[in-house]
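Example record for the data management plan.
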Amino acid sequence: MLFLLYILLLSLCHRAPAIRLPSNNSKTPFLLRSKASRDSETMATKEDVQDPRIPKIASSIRVIPDFPKPGIMFQDITTLLLDTEAFKDTIDIFVERYKGKGISVVAGVEARGFIFGPPIALAIGAKFVPLRKPKKLPGKVISEEYSLEYGTDKIEMHVGAVEPGERAIIIDDLIATGGTLAAAIRLLERVGVTIAECACVIELPVLKGREKLGETPLFILVTSDAA
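Corresponding structural encoding:
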C-alpha cells in the first residue's frame, strides 16, 4: 500500500507544466491582457469575457521538455498549425481585434512571427514587415541591439519598409524574457512608427517579459507555467 502511494506521489511530481488560459480573476482580464492604454481599451471588445475558441487553441499547443537544451520547456506551436480549426481561430481572433483600427503595418519577429503575421496583415489590409536576424536581409538595413543571457544580438529591418507616422502591431508566437519584442519596439519607434500593441499567442509570465515593453500594450491568448 505504501509503495502504491509512493508511485502516485512520484507521478504527480513529474506532471507536465500546464498551459493556462488567461484568468478572469487576474488584474488584467482576457481581451484586456495588456497594459492600460487608450489603444488597448479601444481594441478590446468585452471585459471579463473569455473567448470560447481559446481552450481549443491552448489544448493544441504541446510542451516538450529539455529542448533545445536541458531545463528548457519548449512551447511547440507546430501542433497548433496541424489543427486547421485551432490555427484559423488563432488568426481570426487577432484579425477581429485589429481590423478597422488603422493598422498599416504588421511587423513579424523572426521566425515564428512570420507564420502568424502575414495572414493577419492580409486580412486587415496592412503590409507585412519582417524583422530579421543579422545578415538575412539583402538590402540596406536599420538594426537594433538587445541583450542575451550571454552577449548580445540584433534585429534588423529594411530601410524604407515603413514610413514615419504609420501605425503598427508587432507579432510573435511567444513572449518569454521580452528582449526581442522590446528591441522591435525601439527599432520601429526610431523611424517614427507608432506601436499600437504587441501580440503573442503564448506568454510565460514567470519570466516577466512584459515588464521590458514599457508603455507598449501586450495582447496574448494563453499563458503557460512552463519556462
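Summary line stored alongside the record: DSSP finds seven helices and ten strands in the chain.
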